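Exercise 7. Predict the structure of Purine nucleoside phosphorylase from Flavobacterium cellulosilyticum.
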Amino acid sequence: MNIETIKETTKFLIQKGFHFPDVGIVLGTGLGQLVNHIKIEAEVDYADIPNFPVSTVEFHSGKLLFGTLENKKVVVMQGRFHLYEGYSLQEITFPIRVLKALGIQTLLISNAAGAINLNFKKGDLMLIEDHINLQGGSPLAFKNVSEFGERFTDMSEPYDLNLRHSIIEIAKAQNIILHKGVYAAVVGPQLETKAEYRYLKIIGADAVGMSTVPEVIVANHLGLAVLAVSVLTDECNPDDLKPVNISEIIALAGQAEPKMISLFKELLKE
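Solution. The predicted structure, encoded as tokens:
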């Protein structure tokens, strides 16, 4: 990891019109509709950004967008990177470091996840209050990490309390079901076995996915206020487990997404 690389990428984006964003937004699997609500002022494909990884997942479009949403300047990652694509944890989180260098103070993250807590139903939203890192590494585990911030980053409250309180109130006002829970991040790309779902439940997970946690760790390392919401796209009941249909998961994410967009937009207003 190299500070010069981040500077080079940031300079390129500023030249492309990415000027002083307030908020960064990461859009997860099947969650691209938010961009239809943004007054877009600049956009660039990941493939054209120096030092950026390129998304290899067909339903992650791979674009960085800049514009206005609810009178806030936002920079949006439409598509993210995953360990299961063969990237390192440092590569996955490189864009978060660039967003911070561009000027964001707040990071809103979305993902599609499976519901381990069987009181939660597919199509519901879950506010991530805490997480369990089962990805076998840390995006902060590199030699010169202390050039970028405190090596031993505190994770006692990785998801911002004020943002969480605000979005809970917004959900109540809008009559949107917003569960609260613990997100477990696994490597993937294979889905979990019945025994793995049982294990996840035992260790305290309410939902499981293959992203988000590395981004949250780095955001905390950079001192950003973080909020993350999962769209629950399947129910992971080990006693009644059906084969997973990925296209169905994408479709369900798309159906539930308007609720998430509504919450994020109202949060930005506040």
